[in-house]
Design a protein that fits this description.
four-stranded mixed β-sheet; alpha/beta; 5 helices; globular; single chain
């Protein structure tokens, strides 16, 4: 891993986890929750709990005053539909960070494809009862709107989200990987960290 390379960088890894279990106290459609940064979220999709804990993880990451933030999650099945298992869907607010991630993917063979972050997508997350809704007001745009949701919870100017829903397990088209869970894009991230360390 990255630590064994003894790279001259400070690396912090955060792993937000939760259970999504039915009970009398489970979140119900229409509930409003308050995120770590104080923003309120209307929960209209109770199966989208991953973005709720990612929101708090991004806010917590900001507390370390990082130079860069990269998160990875299987947040949208729509990404698997859009890109299949051949590459990671990537969003980035920073061209410099994106360029490093893309080079890391090219070198490792775990390709990344940059997705848009148009500001207009954010308007579709409006809520009448909270600061933001956890799903889109328009069907079929979850893939694009999700990242505008996440942007409400991070201030770091150099941030990237890697949606790994399509690459979490191997496909027949990736002949150099065994069947099963792939660990992708770990190699791309390690190579990107190496490239970042050279810029110090």
């Amino acid at each position: 891993g990255a630590a064994s390379l003894n790279l001259p960088i400070n690396l912090i890894t955060l792993i937000p986890l939760c259970e999504n279990m039915p009970s009398s106290t489970a979140t119900k459609p229409g509930d409003v929750v308050t995120a770590m940064n104080g923003k309120t979220i209307q929960v209209d999709n109770t199966d989208a709990e991953g973005r709720l804990i990612l929101a708090d993880a991004l806010t917590y990451a900001d507390s370390f005053d990082p130079s860069h933030v990269v998160d990875m999650a299987t947040l949208t099945g729509a990404m698997a539909v859009a890109l299949g298992g051949e590459c990671v869907g990537a969003y980035s607010t920073c061209d410099e960070l994106w360029n490093i991630l893309e080079k890391g993917g090219y070198t490792s063979g775990d390709r990344l494809w940059r997705m848009p972050l148009f500001k207009e997508y954010g308007d579709l997350l409006k809520s009448a009862t909270a600061d933001i809704n956890n799903i889109s007001a328009v069907p079929y745009e979850g893939l694009l709107l999700l990242l505008n949701f996440c942007r409400n919870f991070i201030k770091c100017k150099s941030w990237a989200h890697l949606d790994i829903a399509g690459v979490m397990d191997s496909t027949d088209s990736m002949s150099y990987l065994p069947k099963g869970m792939s660990g992708r894009p770990t190699r791309s991230i390690i190579e990107a960290l190496r490239l970042l360390s050279l810029e110090k």
